[in-house]
Amino acid sequence: MTDIDGIDQRLLRELGRDARQSAGALGRKLNLSQPATWRRIKRLEQAGVLKGRRVRLNHAALGFGVTVFLGVKLATKGRVSLDDFERAVCAIPEVQLVQHVLGLYDYRLRVVARDLPDFERVLRRRIMTLPGVGHVEANVLLSEERRAGPIG
Amino acid sequence: MLEMDDTDRRLLRQLQAAHDFSISDLAERAGMSTGTASRRLERLERAGVIEGYEAVIDWHALGYAVEVSLRVTLDKTHANAFDEFIAAARDIPEVDEIQTFLGRVDVRLNVLARDMAHYQGIYRERILALPHIADIEALMLVANIQNRESLPL
Q1: Are the Cβ atoms of B99 and A102 closer than 8 angstroms?
Q2: Which terminus of chain B, N or C, has fewer Cβ atoms within 10 Å?
Q3: What is the model's pLDDT at position B1?
Q4: CATH tag for A60-140 (out of 3.30.70.920, 3.30.450.150, 1.10.3720.10, 3.40.50.300)
């Protein structure tokens, strides 16, 4: 586990907001020199805390108007069926997130679709035909807010 | 909606797969010149198709080993149940995602904790103190099998 101080926390918060800020610009915000800021960023990268950067795209502008979360319960269990299910579900392009969970469901999926009819197509043709799939619950995403988390 | 061609889509596909955003790498992988790539990126940013770039933080590396998805049903007899619940949830630093839904679940909170004892503390002191809760179900994360933010462009 990596120990971080208050300055690292602010640095992570800034990078979470906008990952393209230069070390110089970040340093000015945090009252650090450019090299000191750069060293901190490198250290966080090497420790695996900063895993990478990703682009945030406007889903609606790209024609993806619907996001649905699915809770999936497997009908049959056993090591082979978990592997089969995971391999097949990860191959569906509309599935963004596959989480193995403990609780009411076995898996949590995040699915994107162009609209509700398109989602229905994905659900019927791709999800309901997955190997071992049992009960499926769908919740349509209305709004989403990402917070800074414990460094906030 | 912005008119986009296959070249734009190719560039966005590469951008989604990229781990850093060096224009020259991106242009090479998308099969175009650096100038074309940066002009097109600028246009997509201006049009709001590209909203921004964010750092991905590995909470495990920071000692947060427990991640729980709390699915909350609210008591909708209160007119402001959603607003008051969400406003209060924003004050819990361990909550890093707040989503609202149409379906059996009203709101989902993603909670990060260092270990089970820490989670128990957050759950008892902070989560159960949130207003207008009718029911809560918890799903504990075992493993992320796949986590890609990318759209099938």
Answers
A1: no
A2: N
A3: 66
A4: 3.30.70.920
